[in-house]
Amino acid sequence: MKNVRWLRIQIKMKRNSSTKKEQQFWAYTFLFFPLMLLTIFLFIPILSSFIFSFFNWELMASDQKFVGLNNYIEIFGDKIFYKAMLNTVLYTIGVVPIQTILALFLAFVMNQKIRGRSFFRTAFYIPAVTSSVVTSIIFVAIYSKEGLLNTLLGNLGILPNDWLTNPRTALISIMMLNIWTTSGYFMVSFLAGLQNIPESLYEAARLEGATQAQQFWHITVPMVRPVTYFVIVMSLIGCFQVFDQVFVMSDGGPNNATTTLSYYVYQNGFKYFRLGYGAAAAIVLAGIIMTVTVIQKKYFPPNPY
Amino acid sequence: MSHNNRIPLFMVKSILKYVILAFSFALITSCIRDKKDTIRFSSWQSNPSEKRLTDSLLHYFSEKYPEYNVKFELIPGNYSEKIQLMLGTHSAPQVFYVKDFVAPSYLRYDVLQPLNEFIDQDTSFDIADFFPQFLKAYTRDGKIYGIPKDFGCFVLFYNEDMFKEAGLNEPPKDWAELETFSEKLTRDTNGDGKADQFGIVVEPSIDKLMPFVFQNMGSFQDQDGNLTLNTPEFQGAVEYYYGLYKKKIATIPSDVSMNNTEEVFGRKRAAMVISGGWFVPQLKDQYSDVNYRVAFLPEGKQMATIAFTVSYSSPKENPLKEETWKLLSYLTGKEGMKLWTSTGIAMPTRKSVAEQLDYVSHPEYKYFMGSVDFAKVFQVDYNERWYSITQSAMQAIFYEKADISQKIKQMENDIRSLKIKE
User: Fold this and answer.
1) B362 C-beta neighbours (distance < 10 Å), count
2) Which of B88, B383, B393 faces A60 most closely, judged by CB atoms?
3) Which residue of B81, B109, B383 is in closest CB contact with A61?
4) Does B38-151+309-368 match B155-306+379-416 in CATH topology?
5) Distance between CA B220 and CA B389 in Å, rounded?
6) How far apart (Å, rounded) are the C-alpha atoms in residues A170 and A136?
7) pLDDT digits over A173-219, tens only?
8) What is the CATH number of the domain that holds A110?
9) Per-domain residue ranges for chain B?
10) Which residues contact B221 (CB under 8 A, 6 or more apart)?
11) How many of the other CB atoms lie within 10 Å of CB of B3?
12) CA–CA separation, B290 vs B270, rounded Å?
């Protein structure tokens, strides 16, 4: 009698407390480490930046002066800030559409049964996983006055141009590098989306006599809309934060032609030793990105159906 | 009961969770700590020959003073940002390099240790032995915050072979000769109709412009720190300097797909370049087929050049002040400096060492030593952003053919607002 009761109690304990509580415990334990990392390296720095932005925070000074909104007021009066904003907007308007369309197109092509498909898929994806510093250095050589690009264009009769020191072409050069790099990355996302489109839709279209182009525009594009939304959001966020290429290739020049908002933050924070001002610029940048994302979610939602 | 003898599973899991927590705690707190009395010494990344010299200097110091423990920590990459970070977080090394260019910032923040009391107590140090302008770069209100370890200055390097081909036997003596010689030396060497060899290579940066400004009796700021950019002297220098490029007798590195002026000279695309002592070892190692000679910069309205120096400095927060001074005074003492400058990678800032090594008679070094009389250390008392503003202006003038006097006015207006408020 006692044994059966004891067994029943044990089973109850196991079911109620051990199973549920233990599951919860292990869940929190496994969450703890990544959460701790995120807190230390993400949440606390973001909060600190917000606090710093109200101070005249200079790292080597013995005390930090509270200046309220002065940093923000100064930012909105700085003509280089507006240049940086203009550069960032131009950059984004140029890169996001081209990148998205190119990535979708490449994915569509890669989804067909053509020879050497895996080779091409790898070839397009490799720039995305190569260090951005490495690709930037390579492209500095390609873009130079006597470099590869000018040599190729020269064969077509086009005069050589110093791509990175000409203020009119410097930003475009960096944009092209970025399109080349990240199209392959988003191609993979689109490939995954494409493979979720039921083949029956294409079959039905073919039976009706639809061409490849018609199939692309009327089946592929609408069905892949959630992925498009994801790609555009990630692309926008990435474009607003572009830094590596500017840092390696042009140092924000010539004459601030390639100074983007994130480079502006770095310049003021670390080169001019004004961390408070740089933090304020970073908060402004974050605000801009958040606003754009909210607008996009409202007017271009992922799934209107 | 048999199940009472086994340890229940949930107990094992409880112990395991404490083990995991303890392990992660140990992992987090296992920071490496140095021994308490190690003197940490940092410098930026330089070429291998400089590194070898540093190592041997520290080796001799350890032999002479075995009771002191010195640890050399090289800082690769962005040196000034790293040092700034370390000073701000109270973890700076005891001894580190400070470039003359950035010294005003460090002095402004008062993070360096004044060395006067150590200098006065140390009878063998002989502070009067130093050339005054290098010491002055690190002095404020009579307090010395760093000891200059060596110096370099801009001189003219020229390719003797190219000069002979053009029928020239002497380097240019003044601005007029610099122009006419550059014209003669600019030529099309491979018959494609375009000039491939240029008289001189310049670059759109304030550093290479300033010698011309000083030679034209101009300056960047006056005694009281007010800007003197919008002056005929400054503008005249910019017009002359840019004029060389405009007349196509000078080239810039990006036009020939290279990174700096030294490379253009080393790869024989220009017959002249303005550079400093640091170029000599590079010429010997990388461009040994260039038959180069050294000369004073051509004279403007007066002789002038820019001198560069680096100091050993120490942070104010330092528990090892006495030991730090021992290392500092050895590195910049007569023996240490002689060792450091004996290979000619830089010139001694001590008069006695220069005499001992007899650099005034050396066929190359005499131009560096001789320039000390008219060499100025270039420092600016405005927030670091001034440098970017001048770079933008110079780039606009060279790349966008912007109007010079308008750009100069704009430059002065922009920098003026960066005056450091005391």
Assistant:
1) 13
2) B88
3) B109
4) yes
5) 13
6) 13
7) 999 999 999 998 999 999 999 888 888 988 999 898 888 888 888 88
8) 1.10.3720.10
9) 38-151+309-368, 155-306+379-416
10) B227, B228, B380, B381, B382
11) 9
12) 11
- For residue B419, list its beta bridge partners: B382
How many folded domains does chain A comprise?
Answer: 2
- A60 belongs to a structural domain: no
CA distance A95 to chain B (A): 26
Residue B180 touches chain A, beta carbons under 8 Å: no
pLDDT tens for each residue of A124-157:
899 999 999 999 999 998 998 878 898 898 888 8
For residue A112, tell me if it sits in a domain: yes
- Using DSSP, how many helices (H) and how many strands (E) does chain B show? 19, 13
Parts of chain B with a pLDDT under 70 = 1-7, 28-36, 420-422
- Tell me whether B392 touches chain A (CB under 8 Å): yes
Does A154 share its domain with A48? no
Same domain for A100 and A194, yes or no, is yes
Whether A78 and A44 share a structural domain: no
Q: A84 contacts in B (CB within 8 Å)? A: none
Give the distance from residue A34's alpha carbon to the nearest chain B alpha carbon, in angstroms.
13
Taking an 8 Å cut-off on Cβ atoms, the answer to whether A60 and B109 are in contact is: yes
Between helix A117-129 and helix A170-194 the angle, nearest 10°, is 130
Residue B403 · residue B414 · CB < 8 Å: no
User: Which pairs with CB-CB distance under 8 Å and at least 24 residues apart come from B169-174?
Assistant: B171/B272, B171/B293, B171/B295, B171/B298, B172/B272, B172/B298, B173/B298, B173/B299, B174/B298, B174/B299, B174/B300
| Chain B residue with the nearest C-alpha to that of A32 | B21
Residue with tokens 């200046």: A67
Which range of residues forms the domain containing residue A287? 74-299
How far apart are alpha carbons B211 and B233 in whole angstroms? 12
Would you say B342 and B357 are in contact if contact means Cβ atoms under 8 Å apart? yes
- A46 and A92 co-located in one domain: no
In-domain check, residue A67: no
Same domain, A240 and A282: yes
Determine contact, residues B131/A83, Cβ cutoff 8 Å.
no
The three-class DSSP label of residue A243 is coil
Optimal mutation site among A273, A274, A275, A277, interface B, most CBs of chain B within 10 A: A273
User: CATH classification of B155-306+379-416, choosing from 3.10.28.10, 3.10.580.10, 3.40.50.10540, 3.40.190.10?
Assistant: 3.40.190.10
Q: Which residue of B has its CA nearest to A146?
A: B257
* Domain annotation covers residue A182: yes
Scan residues 137-176 of A and list those with Cβ closer than 8 Å to B: 144-147, 162, 164-167
- Comparing CB atoms, the residue among A22, A60, A253 nearest residue B87 is A60
Distance CA A6, CA B408 (A): 93
pLDDT the model gives residue B35: 55
C-alpha angle B121/B125/B129, rounded to 5°? 130
C-alpha B205/C-alpha B226 separation (Å) is 21
A18 touches chain B (CB under 8 A): yes
Q: Is the ipTM of this complex over 0.90?
A: no
The per-residue pLDDT for A14 is: 61
CA distance A202 to A274: 58
Give the start-end residues of each E strand in chain A. Answer: 55-56, 65-66
The answer to whether the CB atoms of B392 and A256 lie below 8 A apart is: yes
Q: How far is A31 from chain B (nearest CA, A)?
A: 13
Give how far Cα B213 sits from Cα of A190, B103, B206, Å: 59, 22, 10
Chain A, nearest residue to B14 by Cα: A22
At the top level of CATH, which class does the domain B38-151+309-368 belong to? alpha beta
Q: Same domain, yes or no, for A167 and A108?
A: yes
